[in-house]
Design brief:
Elements lengths: L14 E4 L36 H17 L3 E5 L2 E5 L8 H17 L9 H21 L1 H114 L1
Helix pairs in contact: 2-3, 3-4
């Protein structure tokens, strides 16, 4: 027989329920156990029946067992066509059991190399099993207190599930934003390349216009120098002509006197 994974929750010895796995039922209480325990490598036989209790005590014990089975359902597994069921133990816990539970928790945390801080699925699983065992111990002594702890456990699990969903949605949101940023980055780089190309074209046009402006200014300066030289020559010519006319006029007037 290959038992399921070991848990910090205390279970009774496995019991052979049926040799046909098709007849498996969800409740171990409703199943009829085999009258004879398995031989060879089979599990340890079921513990002997308890001493006879009064009807009130028997009813209370039955209610406690039902509450325990509802809080921590029996484990079932099949092997070689045989169905095995292992119910949670209804034996009251002693102080030594609590001390052993703490030591076993520390040992498994160290054995499975659970992280001391941060998010660690292994540590969370072991502490969850430890909490279930504490709920089992409390439920045996006081069913109402156990049910209240069950509400606390379910609330914690629901809160953790909500945080996990929120974390996953935030990661997905971050991934979408990152992809949008990458896409926007590509578009922005493309736009930058276009603007740089336009800038180079405008700079080339500016340089061409500057060259044309310099050529125009140079031609205008040359033309201005030519016109100034021509104007100066005309003035000199007019001055010489005026001087010659004055000389001739003076020569004509002088003999008459």
């Amino acid at each position: 027989m290959i038992p399921p994974n070991a848990s910090l929750v205390k279970y009774d010895n496995p019991v052979l329920v049926s040799r046909n796995t098709d007849k498996k039922t969800p409740r171990a209480k409703s199943l009829k156990t085999s009258p004879t325990p398995p031989t060879g490598t089979g599990p340890v036989p079921a513990p002997p029946s308890k001493q006879k209790l009064s009807p009130v005590d028997a009813k209370a014990a039955q209610q406690t067992d039902e509450i325990l089975n509802s809080i921590l359902p029996p484990r079932e597994w099949a092997e070689n066509g045989q169905l095995w069921v292992q119910q949670v133990s209804s034996t009251p816990a002693t102080r030594l059991d609590v001390v052993n539970l703490q030591e076993e928790l520390d040992r498994r945390l160290q054995q499975r190399q659970a992280r001391e801080t941060g998010i660690c699925p292994v540590r969370r699983e072991l502490y969850s099993q430890c909490f279930d065992e504490l709920i089992r111990q409390v439920t045996i002594n006081c069913a109402e207190r156990g049910l209240l702890l069950l509400r606390v456990r379910d609330e914690i699990r629901m809160t953790i599930a909500a945080y996990q969903t929120l974390y996953e949605s935030s990661v997905a949101f971050g991934m979408r934003k990152a992809l949008q940023a990458e896409q926007g980055k590509a578009d922005m780089e493309k736009k930058i390349d276009t603007l740089e190309s336009e800038k180079r074209d405008l700079e080339r046009q500016v340089n061409e216009l500057k060259a044309k402006c310099e050529q125009i200014e140079k031609r205008a300066a040359e033309q201005r120098q030519v016109e100034e030289k021509k104007h100066t020559e005309e003035i000199q010519f007019l001055k010489r002509t005026n001087q010659q006319l004055k000389t001739q006029l003076e020569g004509i007037i002088a003999p008459k006197k």
